[in-house]
Amino acid sequence: NAGVTQTPKFQVLKTGQSMTLQCAQDMNHNSMYWYRQDPGMGLRLIYYSASEGTTDKGEVPNGYNVSRLNKREFSLRLESAAPSQTSVYFCASSEIGRGNQPQHFGDGTRLSIL
Amino acid sequence: DQQVKQNSPSLSVQEGRISILNCDYTNSMFDYFLWYKKYPAEGPTFLISISSIKDKNEDGRFTVFLNKSAKHLSLHIVPSQPGDSAVYFCAGTFSGGYNKLIFGAGTRLAVHP
């Protein structure tokens, strides 16, 4: 039971480089999410996809783009990485986008921008 | 503007005793509150939730209490076990829309034998 799988687990980038964080879920969930977690702060929503074919901005979308490739996969792209994007990134999924549906999280990608 | 606040960064409790983790919120529009537990190098895992129309929800050793007038909720763990040592996040969300979770900063619980 893989649940939500994120790759890579760790990455170091130089300022200005680009990269894509991958996320896949095998629970047939409709909704998927990308969060970032910074020290002393809770998780903050970057982007979400309520269903296949739709994406919308969350609280902190600047500097990121997303692609909902199919029902299983939701990727997060940093076009030009900045040190302020150093963080731990979590992908999550839920059956539907309703408040009482718990989200299931991957184990995170730890990203450092030098 | 922090809509969900967990004012205690850490809590230390002896095994077998009660752990009480607190959370305050400012947004009266929240319809649900959820607690997540996070171990190092892992993602958060859902623990327990409560609807805003309830004042208590219980699941085994875990009970969440909601005081709407005070905009306060708490998670009680009884009895506490060493395996409960983790960071606990509370989050508020809305029944409409897209299941947007607003997280607190978390409380690190250490349960000592």
Short key terms for the protein model shown above:
heterodimer; A: 7-stranded mixed β-sheet; 4-stranded antiparallel β-sheet; 11 strands; B: mainly beta; 6-stranded mixed β-sheet; 5-stranded antiparallel β-sheet; 0% helix; globular
Structure commentary:
Chain A is mostly beta strands. In chain A, 0% of the residues lie in helices and 49% in strands. Chain A is built from no helices and 11 strands. In chain B, strands 2, 4, 5, 9, 10 and 11 form a 6-stranded mixed beta sheet that branches. In chain B, strands 1-3-8-7-6 form a 5-stranded antiparallel beta sheet, with no helix packed on it. At the A-B interface, strand 5, strand 9 and strand 10 of A face strand 4, strand 5, strand 9 and strand 10 of B.
Short description:
With 114 residues, chain A is mostly beta strands. Helices cover 0% and strands 49% of the residues of chain A.
Note the topology.
The complex is a heterodimer of chains A (114) and B (113).
Chain A: E1 4-7, E2 10-13, E3 19-25, E4 31-37, E5 43-49, E6 56-57, E7 64-68, E8 74-78, E9 87-94, E10 104-105, E11 109-113
Parallel strand pairs in A: 2-11
Antiparallel strand pairs in A: 1-3, 3-8, 4-5, 4-9, 5-6, 7-8, 9-10, 9-11
Chain B: E1 4-5, E2 10-14, E3 19-25, E4 32-38, E5 45-51, E6 56-59, E7 62-67, E8 72-77, E9 86-93, E10 102-103, E11 107-112
